[in-house]
């Protein structure tokens, strides 16, 4: 499980790069909401590629282990989103919670869901 703990950290780097591209390349021309949606979906795709690589390189031993990895990654992702998002990146709590509001077109919730279920899905696909 320690290996999978450390394999979560590149997700942060991927997310930061993806968000930086959004902010510097297309947010101004597309607007905040559409840029948020595009960046969420590109993040899901890039994460999927990363998951494919790691789950082909480091074998998960059981469906229970895959579920535990997903739970760990989900908790780490949410902790990072809320704690680093607020205290390091200085986002307001309102802005952070707003990214979870699907009724306003914000689709960020798909990212922690994907991070949480991907280990199990890839375990089933690959094994």
Describe this structure in words.
It is a single chain. This protein is an all-alpha fold and 127 residues long. It has one domain (2-126). It is built from five helices and no strands. It has helices spanning 2-30, 32-57, 63-88, 93-98, 110-126. Helix 3 runs antiparallel to helix 5 (110-126). The protein is globular. The chain starts with a helix and ends with a helix.
Please state the structural category: mainly alpha
Helix content: over 70%
N-end to C-end Cα span: 18 Å
Number of domains: 1
> What sort of overall outline do the alpha carbons produce when their principal axes are compared?
globular
- How confident overall, as mean pLDDT? 96
Order of helices and strands: HHHHH
Rg of Cα set: 15 Å
Number of alpha- plus pi-helical segments: 5
Largest sheet: none
How much of the polypeptide forms β-strand, as a percent range? under 5%
Total number of beta strands: 0
Query: Spans with pLDDT under 50 lasting ≥5 residues?
Result: none
